[in-house]
Amino acid sequence: MKTATTIEEQIQLLHSRGMEFPNEEKAKEILLDIGYYRLGFYWFPYERTYPAKNNRNHKFKDNTSFENVVTLYYFDHDIRSIIAPYLYRIEVNFRTFLTYTVSNRYKNNPTWFADPRIVSSDFVAYLPNCYKTICKNEAIKHHHSKYINDIYAPAWKTLEYMTFGDILYLYSSLKDQTLKEAIALHYNIRNVDVFENYMGTLRVIRNLCAHGHNIYDLKLQKRIRKGPIAELKGNRLHDLAGGLLVLTYILNSISMNRVQDLRYKLNLLVSQPQISNIEDVIKDLKDFIKESK
Q1: Considering the domain boundaries, does residue 69 fall inside one?
Q2: What is the pTM of this model?
């Protein structure tokens, strides 16, 4: 069993594996601030056996600097900070459009999301457990205090407090295929399966951003399906550049101005002088900027 190590022991270990420390005192501050384990995700690309995850010897390539590892860490943080608001914009827009479209299709059924004639029986069975969390919100509590006989609050209230994953599950559970197609077409996608895959991809990236996970080396477990985005092929079906192409494609159907804002901010990020030291590691993002012009 491995045991805890001091900051000094961690630096000594990294030294022995070939990492250079231009300023050890500063490195101690950073290790105490960010943590050895978390930074490990950012020195992984500098290991000689990268990208292999099994049988690693943890030896570093020549001229691997602790400063470059830290630069990559903050670069990754900045990517998440930049794209998170645009992911949220898509999430809110999709939630709103789904609620508006389906609620107006079933005007006389404000809780259509609980009706087995409209959504799958699996979703109906899942809903009570989901609603336990939704009920904790003050607006929903207020609704039930006023309408004591309602099992669920109307869609325009309930869906507001569903997670992005629950909203996507609800969409996939709609029984009316033409309704699903109309919603997908709003985002310029004709194939429902492709639309669900694109939105599922964005949900994965959104969750990684929300939980501070590294995304500079994103490798999606579920590949992005081929569809209206011509550049999606090869590695793009799994990597960060592919995910960002999906993000900008969906965002473009909501606001072309926001797409331009996003590209500008990402281009500004990769143009910083210190980024030149980690160019090989951030190739996916630089490829996206080049391919999406």
Answers
A1: no
A2: 0.93
Task: Domain count for the chain, please give it.
Answer: 2
Q: Which amino acid makes up residue 156? A: W
CA pair distance 270, 286, nearest whole angstrom: 7
Q: Are 201 and 189 spatial neighbours (Cβ–Cβ below 8 Å)?
A: no
Domain residue limits at 36: 7-64
Could you say which DSSP state residue 137 is in? S
Residues in the chain: 293
In terms of domains, do 87 and 168 share one? yes
Give the pair of three-digit tokens for residue 150.
């309602």
Per-residue pLDDT tens, the chain, 293 aa: give them. 778 899 999 999 999 999 999 999 999 999 999 999 999 999 999 999 988 888 888 999 999 999 999 999 999 999 999 999 999 999 999 999 999 999 999 999 999 999 999 999 999 999 999 999 999 999 999 999 999 999 999 999 999 999 999 999 999 999 999 999 999 999 999 999 999 999 999 999 999 999 999 999 999 999 999 999 988 888 899 999 999 999 999 999 999 999 999 999 999 998 888 888 888 888 877 777 776 65
